[in-house]
Design goal:
The structure is a single chain. By secondary structure, the protein is α/β, with parallel strands linked by helices. It has 2 domains: 3-105 and 312-372, Rossmann fold, CATH 3.40.50; 108-304, 3-Layer(aba) Sandwich (Rossmann fold). The protein has helices at residues 15-22, 39-46, 63-71, 89-94, 107-122, 125-133, 162-175, 188-203, 217-223, 243-248, 266-275, 313-332; strands at 3-7, 25-29, 52-55, 76-79, 98-100, 154-158, 178-182, 211-213, 226-229, 254-257, 280-283, 302-304, 371-372. The chain has a 7-stranded parallel beta sheet with strand order 8-7-6-9-10-11-12, with helices on both faces. The longest helix is centred in the last third of the chain and has 20 residues, at 313-332. The relative contact order is 0.17. It binds glyoxylic acid (2 copies). It comes from Rhodamnia argentea. Residues 117-309 form the D-isomer specific 2-hydroxyacid dehydrogenase NAD-binding domain. Its EC number is 1.1.1.29.
């Protein structure tokens, strides 16, 4: 291959590798056992010549790495994630490196995990499973693991972008929940969907669902029974959920976070869980992954899973493919993947010039001569 593309991790599927190999790239995949690579580890992977890197959300892509990549002749970096709080886009701009992310392909998968956590929390599925396995079940009882009925309750969505809107649709249509959402932008498609669904229910003689776009986040916190967080993480959303916002929520509310850990003040959350046994959370992300704040793992009213919201086979293969296309597109000057859901292929405006892109979409899967570092 004429171009050297490095992936800091092995990624699912083979399509992403073939796309690169077929287009003059030599693909090198880091096979180091260590889960989280340091900046120094990645500098070593970049080496003297590197045209592009596919990296992960656990890595700190700042000034140091972009200058190293640029010195090695690199033009492109793609995060294998939709979130890019681990990437300093200004630093990438400064060194002339295009930055890509992988939106669209993970929308439904991530929303489905948020829905799963909402249901698991509402119906206390994890606690009940532990109870069963511990041999504590000695017969049916009217009070055993009584939880919440979602139907007719209000789902609160904070951040109604692609994922937040998909989650809202699932909870509304699946469980006939009313909606209250907070976002800086109006979500017209979501509003149209709820309105139409409400009319459908009415036409069938059922109670229609209601919806409202809240003027403040506090309205959502006060009114919703289940609240799911879907904002991006930046300075404005750091500790968006803190001691005060928790105190604003209903005592028996359910909070779900599949966005980024630091959106929630986890120490305040543990304190809140301790004092409000009927308050429940489902967490996919944590403030300082892979760690949990002290006390969280002891809380029966918390369900915790290890950042797996985008972890379906289809999605992870799609994310790897998009990340490869981001890097390839920039290296070869191809137009970017034209998925209409994918509105920010290059975050810093370094969109490659339009040109024909011969075999990207229908690349066949070959057996893989992958070189290893
Ligand atoms: C995963 O967390 C992502 O941002 O894609
Ligand atoms: C996230 O921002 C998404 O909706 O893909």
């Amino acid at each position: 291959g004429k171009y050297r593309v490095v992936s800091t991790k092995s990624m699912p599927g083979t399509r992403w590798i073939n796309l690169l190999i077929e287009q003059d790239c030599r693909v090198e995949i880091c096979t180091q056992k260590k889960t989280i690579l340091s900046v120094e580890d990645i500098i070593a992977l970049i080496g003297d010549k590197c045209d592009g890197v596919i990296g992960q959300l656990t890595e700190d892509w700042g000034e140091t790495l972009f200058s190293a990549l640029s010195r090695a002749g690199g033009k492109a970096f793609s995060n294998m994630a939709v979130g890019y709080n681990n990437v300093d886009v200004n630093a990438a701009n400064k060194y002339g490196v295009a930055v890509g992310n992988t939106p669209g392909v993970l929308t439904e998968t991530t929303a489905e995990l948020a829905a799963s956590l909402s249901l698991a929390a509402a119906r206390r599925i994890v606690e009940a499973d532990e109870f069963m396995r511990a041999g504590l079940y000695d017969g049916w009882l009217p009070h055993l693991f009584v939880g919440n009925l979602l139907k007719g309750q209000t789902v609160g969505v904070i951040g109604a972008g692609r994922i937040g809107s998909a989650y809202a649709r699932m909870m509304i249509e699946g469980f006939k929940m009313n909606l209250i959402y907070y976002d800086l932008y109006q979500s017209t498609r979501l509003e149209k969907f709820v309105t139409a669904y409400g009319e459908f229910l009415k036409a069938n003689g059922e109670q229609p669902v209601t919806w409202r776009r809240a003027a403040t986040m506090d309205e959502v916190l006060r009114e919703a029974d289940v609240i799911s967080l879907h904002p991006i993480l930046d300075k404005t959303t750091y500790h968006l959920i803190n001691k005060d916002s928790l105190a604003t929520m209903k005592k028996e509310a359910i909070l779900v976070n599949c966005s980024r850990g630091p959106v929630v003040d986890e120490v305040a959350l543990v304190e809140h869980l301790k004092h409000n046994p009927m308050f429940r959370v489902g967490l996919d992300v944590f403030e300082e992954e892979p760690y949990m704040k002290p006390g969280l793992s002891d809380m029966k009213n918390a369900i915790v899973v290890p950042h797996i919201a985008s972890a379906s086979k289809w999605t992870r293969e799609g994310m790897a493919t998009l990340a490869a296309l981001n890097v390839l597109g920039k290296i070869k000057g191809y137009p970017v993947w034209s998925d209409p859901n994918r509105v920010e292929p290059f975050l810093n405006g370094n969109v490659p010039p339009p040109a024909a892109c011969p075999s990207i979409v229908n690349a066949k899967v070959l057996s893989l001569p992958v070189s290893k570092l």
